[in-house]
UniProtKB/TrEMBL annotation:
It comes from Melipona bicolor. Residues 199-295 form the Mandelate racemase/muconate lactonizing enzyme C-terminal domain. One of its GO terms (biological process) is carbohydrate catabolic process. Its EC number is 4.2.1.68. This is Mitochondrial enolase superfamily member 1. Pfam families: MR_MLE_C, MR_MLE_N. It catalyses: L-fuconate = 2-dehydro-3-deoxy-L-fuconate + H2O. InterPro entries: Enolase-like_C_sf, Enolase-like_N, Enolase_C-like, L-fuconate_dehydratase, Mandelate_racemase_C, Mandelate_racemase_N_dom, RHMD-like. Its cofactor is Mg(2+). Belongs to the mandelate racemase/muconate lactonizing enzyme family. ENOSF1 subfamily. One of its GO terms (molecular function) is L-fuconate dehydratase activity. Keywords: Lyase, Magnesium, Metal-binding.
Amino acid sequence: MMEILITELDVKDIRFPTSLLADGSDAMHTNPDYSCAYVTIKTNKEIEGYGLTFTLGRGTEIVVEACKSMFYLVKGQNANEIFAHFGSFWRKLTSEPQLRWIGPEKGVIHLATAAIINALWDLWARIENKPVWKLLTDLTPEQLVSTIDFRYITDVITEEEAVELLKVNQKDKEKREEILRKTGYPAYTTQVGWLGYSNDKVKELCTKFLALGFTSFKVKVGQNLTDDIRRCQLVRETIGYKNKLMLDANQIWNINESIEWMKQLAKFEPTWIEEPTSPDDILGHLKIANELRPYSIGIATGEMCANRVMFKQLLQARAIDYCQIDSARIGGINEILAVYLMAKKLGVPVCPHAGGVGLCEMVQHLQMWDFICLSVSTKNRVIEYIDQQHEHFEDPIIVQNACYMPPISPGYSTKFNENCIKNYSYPNGEKWRNIYEQGLFHKLSD
Ligand SMILES: [Mg+2]
């Protein structure tokens, strides 16, 4: 086996001042500065890996420190050895006997795991000279399954069952790859309905995205019912009832409140209500689902689901109709694959969360693998799309006719361009220095 030695790891705090324009505002996160902890893995060859986890500004420095605490587990390793035993390496990372106390497999330490694991997959794909979706689809079912740690989920799916699920779809893989290369993977837009946007802006954006070919639109709700009704009406007037409308409450409601509020919005025929309540409340989601399914409203959640064990229970309990994995959360690709496999077995479509820094870039790879190798369908499946921060990446997403086109460049599409790092490193990047000079932000330490 060729030896590619991991010689150095680096992590940067990168922040974009998105709160200045209310981009990304929702019922719970009213002033986010889209940010990330950005990991670079250096090797004794020319090749490097780049990975990130998404954050909202303050607190990124804590994730950065958590990454640093974990680096010793990766430094000095032979990269190909890691990839040959990726499942057990993932377990080593998440079961570090002292660090696991501040998780386990949740919170800051698990976000740091995601950033490091994402960088490792990027490195692997670059070594193989393939985009990650192609790396995933070219792995044999056995190889792919060997990257997953099945601890805590074998009551729902075993390694053998996972291999079987993948084996049945091997023969027409090329055909589906061809379809993807021709038409891409359907996207939906969240950009029409941020809470901070005015009526005119909502209407203008609906018209714009309709013209671009979008057929699914998402609106933020949950702060004020009268205002939600007004904005849903506005969106429905513009997009009609043939197109899809999804709603997202970002965890603001209690259980009974979710049910009552959504009954008031049922006339707008939403496909799903996303994150109605706490991401940890499995039985709460089940109660909401039972009350709202008679209205044909589905339940979606997952962007802040802590790990595969929580996903397992949401799926087992039939508490969700749409499973929304997040590429920068749970423990990166290895753990996300486990969730896709459980969702497939239990018949729940995966519609990935995206939109934050690098999330669109990453989830497209996963969903394309799912289409080629696992679910082999785009029915009831769609990838979230938001047109923000793509310009900072070397290989930004390409969306044509409201579809994500398969990335061509090697890696996980997560490498920032040099200017981005120079400008948006926090707090000393050039843009940040200008912002402080203009008095637009105040340093917390001041
Ligand atoms: Mg959401």
